[in-house]
TrEMBL record:
The keyword Endoplasmic reticulum does not apply. This is SAM-dependent methyltransferase. It comes from Methylocystis bryophila. One of its GO terms (biological process) is methylation. InterPro entries: Methyltransf_11, SAM-dependent_MTases_sf. Keywords: Methyltransferase, Transferase.
Amino acid sequence: MKLSSIIPWGRNFDEYRTMFALSSADLQGRVLGCGDGPASFNAEAAASGFRIISIDPLYVHTAAEIEAQVQATFDAVTSQLRAQKDQYLWERFTDPDSLGEARRTTMRRFLDDYEKGEQNGRYVAASLPQLPFSDGSFDLALSSHLLFLYSEQLPLAAHIAAVRELLRVAREVRIFPLLTLSGELSPHLQPVCAAMRGDGYDVEKRNVDYEFQRGGNVMLRLRRASETLDRAES
């Protein structure tokens, strides 16, 4: 898929749970969703009694403005999916039209929750690489379909700065997918891994039970090496 900018395109709670191999214990902790956009992950988590903080620069806008942005890009995204259908596995979704309907449902759930969630502090207008949180504010930070996916739009330096910032505010970071919009392994992946290992973090590529882009069933998990040791000993 070839897009010129980052677009609002949301995924649901079950997708997040599967993409990031989230356990009930993970969700009981302090969780940050970074670049969540119009995902229904936060809304569904809140309905289940979990509290997620989602950040995105999109949240400076009203629900009506966000809906207009979704509508403005929706047809372009679905038409490109049709044109490049062979790059994807049509198991969770049977075809581009069923995917489009699923995305509409997901984004409608977000929009219905957005005003209440914003008032409750669950949706925060912010963007990497500068987050409005103190060190170690979260147990887990998730980056869905932003880092690595938009490798052409976000250079290596931006990726490294973003991952360092996520690791500043969270004890653990998970990133999915590791492929670009074109379905290729991100050229930033290895340099980012090397930089984080140099900073003293444990870096692990882990297979997950979610695959839509062909070959895109791997997430990146980063933790400070001491955290990994502490958990292994506990």
